[in-house]
Amino acid sequence: MTLRAPLLIWFSTLLLSTCKAHLPEQTSLFEVVKLTAPDGSARADFIPYGATATNFWVKDKTGKFRDILLGFDDHKLYQSDAAGHPYFGPIVGRYANRIRDGTFTIPISKNASGRNKFHVPLNEGNNTLHGGLDGYDRRTWTVSKKTASSVTFKLIDPDGAQGFPGTVITSVTYTLDRHSTWHISINSIATKQTPIMLSGHHYWNFEAYQETQDLIGHHAQFAASKFVATDGQLIPTGKLTDVSRTPLDFRQAKSIGASINATAAEEYCGTGCIGFDNCWLFDKNDFKKPVFSIWSVNSGIKLEIITNQPALQIYSCNGIFNPALPIPRKKTQGGPLTTYTDHSCVVIESESIIDAINNPEFGVNQIYGPERSYNWESSYIFSTLK
């Protein structure tokens, strides 16, 4: 939706001045919001901290519910980092994924080489990851609306926070619908031109760690003939690479886990890394049909995604295990005496093309402002294999 500048500025000002008056004043960081689909086919838990999904239950092929979303049983760990900070289940932003050197320009230029340069905090080597040191995953969102099957969280990100221009007001609505369908809608308005790229950062194991501890039984298929080429720090070079004759070709269904070792030679997930941490571009997307499918041949749980986003990032949990700081699994996934291990889960992020704000050759406009609002829509449709 596009609004005329004066109207959107007025609307933004009105929201800023009245938000506290119209939203609940005492939102607890870890207050659990429980949702159930109207037909009982899915259940999920959320907390305001990071607008985070902490649990997600759907039925397996035997009709038994499994919690297939990774996370912490102790919700305080989402904030404390005492067990690390893997970005379990939140909304990531104001700009998801990486920003080269933590810099960008408006209008955008190659590697922030133009005027009007902005600097945001570095939190992954020389680059910025998922919005910086104080990204949206580290903010306490406000519950503005709630029903038995839906919740809306809101967040005000002030002008100048972490170096980003403009105040951004964001709402995310999670809705559980019939037939095990999870709708996610994210909308933002900004008072100045600013980069916005948001996504849900959800870790999945469709077996809930019951049959296996790896991704061999997890298969995926999606029509994407190009992926974003990156350097050893996973920063885009500006080029798109053909997936043909590479382990990143999922145009025909295949095992994710069985494809991981084949990534080692080219280090597709960064220097010294084995696995996937890549952004694919969908060949076609009419926003009406699923563009991505993933399933476990063991549990029978399948996920199809319909989205208005042009790309998809997949991370195969290459570095989730830290011997010095192992993350205990949730009780619903065999914990807490067992831990989450490398290549035992997968993150799926529907999003725009990564770091396009430093690569104008991608031809993607990720700058939003008073005349252009941001909209992200996805439906996660769960079912079981026939």
UniProtKB/TrEMBL annotation:
GO MF, one annotated term: carbohydrate binding
CDD domains per UniProt: galactose_mutarotase_like
Superkingdom to which the source organism belongs: Eukaryota
Keywords annotated in UniProt: Carbohydrate metabolism, Isomerase, Signal
Signal peptide extent: 1-21
Keyword Cell inner membrane: no
InterPro entries: Aldose_1/G6P_1-epimerase, Gal_mutarotase_sf_dom, Galactose_mutarotase-like, GH-type_carb-bd
Pfam families found in the cross-reference section: Aldose_epim (PF01263)
Gene Ontology biological process: galactose catabolic process via UDP-galactose, Leloir pathway; glucose metabolic process
Family to which the UniProt record says this protein belongs: Belongs to the aldose epimerase family.
The protein's name in its UniProt record: Galactose mutarotase-like domain-containing protein
